[in-house]
Amino acid sequence: MSKRIETAVILAAGRGTRLQPYTHDIPKGFMQVGDEKLIERSIRLLKENGIKNIIIGTGHLHEQYEDLALKEDLKTYLSPDFATTGSFHTLCFGRELIKEDFLLLESDLLYHEAAIQSLLEDQSDDVILCSGFTKSNDEVYVSVQNGLLQNLSKKQEELNSVDAELVGIWKISQKLYHQLLKQHVTSSDALTKDYEKAIAEEAQNGYRVTVKKLENLAWCEIDNEEHLERAKNLILPRL
Length: 239
Known about the structure:
Layout: E1 7-12, E2 32-33, E3 36-37, H1 38-48, E4 53-58, H2 62-72, E5 75-78, H3 87-93, E6 102-106, E7 109-111, H4 114-121, E8 127-131, E9 141-145, E10 148-153, E11 164-172, H5 174-186, H6 195-204, E12 210-214, E13 219-221, H7 225-235
Parallel strand pairs: 1-4, 1-6, 4-5, 8-12
Antiparallel strand pairs: 2-3, 6-11, 7-13, 8-11, 9-10, 9-11
């Protein structure tokens, strides 16, 4: 039986440049879709599913997350070089707070509660959540072999097979997190790459990351105006 997960880490340092002018005043996670802001909805769903310890890695307009943390009893940490570093650096910068197995999420996601529940129920220690193909533009494709993550890329031609689409929600053990921390020290591109690329490199080196595919999961990432309209018109009615 897998360990009970009570911690979640939300990566929220990005500047959201493709969502300007909205993100001049608010971080991406504070985008409102329906009755809730994205980050408020994630926090509510996490708490309703037994997550007691929520940690947010911040950067752009971090004060807004810090104010939210006071209200919601959360923890935050600031990645000071967020403007010039990638999400892998943000994830590793939280090492003083991230001491247990955890769910890993991105702040700009709108998703059905089943995404969280399926990972918490999965018996594997390390899991990448995937969906069927959304044709939403800007997808990250996933190659799967024997139920395990083989590789991922935005470019289909870089993969041996194209089997699923990355959602941006994971279950991560402390064992994998420590592997990532080691990679952060030794990798020449550690400061600039995305966390999912770092995990894929561990998988290519033999680390077992289970693929959990929910074919018809209602979800979207909101990176630009087109995504925002899709979230409001297509995804929100399915939640």
